[in-house]
Amino acid sequence: MKRNQIKIKLLIVLFLALSFIILGRTNCSYCTDEGTFEMDAKINPIYEDVLSKEEKEYIKEELNKEETVKERSRSNNLVNTYDATTYTSYSKLVNAVKSNMVKRKTKITFVWKQKKYYSEYSYSSFIEDVLVEAMSEKYAKTSDEGNYLRLHFGGHGGNFITRYDKKTKYYTYTTTINVKYYTTANQEAQLNKIVNDYIKSYKNTGKKSKYQIISDFNDYVCNHVTYDYTNLNNSNYLLKYTAYAALVKGTAVCQGYSTLYYKLLDNMGVKNTVVTSNQMNHIWNLVEYNGKWYHVDTTWNDGENKAPYTSYLLWGRYDYPTDHNYSDVTVNWGQSTPSYTLAYHGINVDSNVKVNDFTATSFEEANPTLNWIVPTGVDGVVIRDADTTKVVGKFTNAQTSMPVSNVIKGKEYNFEICTYKVISGEEQYSIPTKLTTFTIPNAVTGFKASSAGYNYVTLAWNKYSTVTGYKIYKYNPSTKKYEYCKRTTATSCKVTGLKTASNYSFRVVAYLKVNGTEYNGKNSVVLTTGTSTKVPAISKLSTKKKKVTINWKKVSGTTGYEIYMRKGTKGSYKKIKTAGSKTVKYTKSKLKKGTKYYFKIRTYRTVKGKKVYSSYSKVKSIKVK
Q1: Is the same domain home to 44 and 118?
Q2: Beta strand pairing status for 292-296 and 313-315?
Q3: Between 24 and 234, where is the model more confident?
């Protein structure tokens, strides 16, 4: 017996030894050609000629405070391999890094798996490329990304572990990137709350042309931000470079101005980017307008100290202000995408060359026209749809009107007209003059009552796609007038607070809101409907000789009752009887003995030939005798 126990123990020891050898070989196979490397702390390249020496040293010191590879044990690094997400797709890796940066993660860890071998230098360069792509306009989808993200990125450092698997012939690069930002996630959340609230209120003031948006937001930045001379030379205060400092703190340097302007325009769908000048140690914006890109410098506009802030608004490549240097300006840091077609000349702010008299005949007429008076000294005018910026007409200075065709009822029309003058073969445009006109909506169709209860009715109608919303009017027998009841932007509306088992008449009207004023369309047909009665109740069920008698309480105001039955626990309810308003009992015969049956009832009222139903009563059941 003892010998058998000794043999068993020896076999267990041998098995464990073999397992250790096998596992050890597998581990050795995976860990061949392993190396650990540090990436030097590097400053965001766009700041190399912008930040002071002290500020750059401060950022590097912050990055070097992070734990380095040498300070961690080899075993801990190997464990981290299994905690990190593995990527083989470059675009997925870039998007993952971008997502972490938007969340202001200071430590980003991942595994890059490829058959390609990277040296220490080439992999460090690869990581820099990934970061640049993560902050590029190419991958940007929100106003927190793209150039905005890049302008709030201070620099990076980190480390990586290289390993080669002989079996799969893949290299894995377990990477930790330490990142320095100018703002925290909480600060960005505070900023976005203010920006989103302002954007919402701005949109509620009505439709605006692109020029108005560009101009209004330039004014908004100038009115809310003061240049931060106090912290200009404070190398430890990097917040001065941020949109957060500009809007929340109220003071910033040029980068804070331009990033705030960038975020505001981006939220309104206006394409824009930033330009930098090393000679001026300065950053401002480039904005797309009517297919071309123009410069806007909100910082220097604010230097005027009072509105209008237009000296540095929408200028072109060949009419640079004398105090701005074009020779070293970099657009979007030289990135190849997207492309920027710079305007040769800017939008002229001289009020003498803009159209001051831009009108329209009534769009309710059969053949409406746009009319204008051309100022002297220009070569012609261009008319655009202000909502889409599409050119709808271009004329010499001899023409002063344009017919408008295919006018749609119930639509707001926004136009803008600019004068132009050809200078050196390039058309130079004036500030646009905006014109808003509209047509009254036709009557809404498909008006009906979709449901009703004892104290409400739900009305519905067909969608009228071009209108602002709909108003519900209810007839008042005392005044003998239809009075305003409710409004909605949906195609249905629940009108509550009504009397039980009563009839009501309604109208629905589509309306337009133009420049703050509401204009009602034509009245719909009158819809007469009503509320239902109170919910009925089954008072008693009785059974004998394969019959069930259903008794219920009489409900006032009803036209009749409908009785429904279900056999057993499965299947659906079927209507078995429609009874008159004076009936309070019904007997159902030819039922199956020993089977359980379920019953419920509802009332109905007839209003203008249509039935208005109450809700169903509570279900009651009984086993048939």
Answers
A1: yes
A2: antiparallel
A3: 234
